[in-house]
Amino acid sequence: MRLIENAGLRAMRMMDPERAHGIAIKALQMGLGPKRGPFTSDRLRTTLAGLDLPNPIGLAAGFDKNATALRPLSRCGFGFLEVGAITPRAQAGNPQPRLFRLKRDRAAINRFGFNNKGMELALARLTVRPKGVIGLNLGANKNSEDRSADFSKVLAYCGEFLDFATVNVSSPNTESLRDLQGKAALAALLDSVMQTNAGLDRPVSIFLKIAPDLDEAELDDVAAVADASGISGIITTNTTLDRVGLHGQYSREPGGLSGQPLFEKSTRVLAQMSQRTNLPLIGVGGVASAAQAYAKIRAGASTVQLYTALVYGGISLVDDIARGLDTLLEKDGFANVSDAVGTGRADYL
């Protein structure tokens, strides 16, 4: 299976990146991915905002934008899945090309712009979702008259079939979206989302996804607003606008940078946020190995998510990371992954 996967990865890296991603989704739908449950152990089983997880390795939003591969992804070893982002109305996103591989850096730049088929189609797929912890990344339409209201619309429409929802105000690819991370705007947005959540028959865990490009004063504001809002946790972080130290012809393309160059920066923001709040944190950005997942956890993350690493390492990487993390926890004498959270924070401050 690993040899076939590696051959497939080599072939897809020769294609246009967005076309290759579509083929990867289609392959999963056809049953060509793993057919096993998530690797778990007493050390890896954990809870995130009241959600029971078999392991702390999650799929980040963006891989399965329209919730088209929930069942096959649930067999790929993840402890939890996040799909989307989904906006109230379908939208095409930004013009192509809008996804670029930086092979030497093991990174990617995207400027998709919340391309998705809208909340009605997402709901149809979520109603037949598989077992496991599944969340939805909430987005706003580019031409919406009230972007703040869009997040609540999607939550109200799809919330019945979710375990968690993420308020995504940190994508760099929708003009002015990151302005919603400002203190007053964010407080109003989260208040609206939490009111909508309270009105669901079964309220879900609400997470906030932030950018890695916030300064310390902005992190102070985000932490204060998040603590006061009653949300369940913070996802640190989304993609970055930084372009320091990159290589290749696509290194200056506009959009959000993900992958290995983001690891140090996102982990530093994670550690800084863990100093400012007691809310659970989800570490995202450059996770491509068990050692990097462990570093995020020791910096303050209760769980981690990955996406870009799958472009270079394949879907089998998920199982490798879970098993490797279990070994690292055992080596350091941790009975459970929760015991390791924050124990290496000082390394990133």
**The CATH superfamily title:** Aldolase class I
Strand content: 15-25%
The major pleated sheet works out as: 8 strands, parallel, barrel
Segments where pLDDT lies below 50 for 5+ residues? none
Silhouette = globular
Q: How widely separated are the two ends?
A: 41 Å
Q: Please give the CATH class.
A: Alpha Beta
| Strand order in the largest sheet | 3-4-7-8-9-10-12-13
Q: In sequence order, what are the helices and strands, one letter per element? A: HHEEEHEEEHEHEHEHEEHEHEHHH
Mean pLDDT, nearest integer?
94
The number of helical segments is: 12
Main structural class: alpha/beta
Helicity level: 25-40%
Number of strands: 13
CATH topology: TIM Barrel
How many domains would you count in the coordinates? Answer: 1
* Rg from alpha-carbon coordinates: 18 Å
Describe it.
By secondary structure, the protein is an alpha/beta fold. It has one domain (37-348): Alpha-Beta Barrel (TIM Barrel). It is built from 12 helices and 13 strands. The chain has helices at 2-12, 17-29, 70-73, 119-126, 147-158, 183-198, 216-229, 263-276, 290-299, 308-313, 317-331, 337-340, and strands spanning 46-48, 51-53, 57-59, 80-86, 99-102, 107-110, 134-138, 164-168, 205-210, 233-236, 256-259, 281-284, 303-306. The strands form 3 sheets. It has an 8-stranded parallel beta barrel with strand order 3-4-7-8-9-10-12-13, surrounded by 5 helices. The chain has a 3-stranded antiparallel sheet with strand order 5-6-11, with no helix packed on it. Strand 1 and strand 2 (51-53) form a beta hairpin. The protein is globular. The N and C termini lie far apart (41 Å).
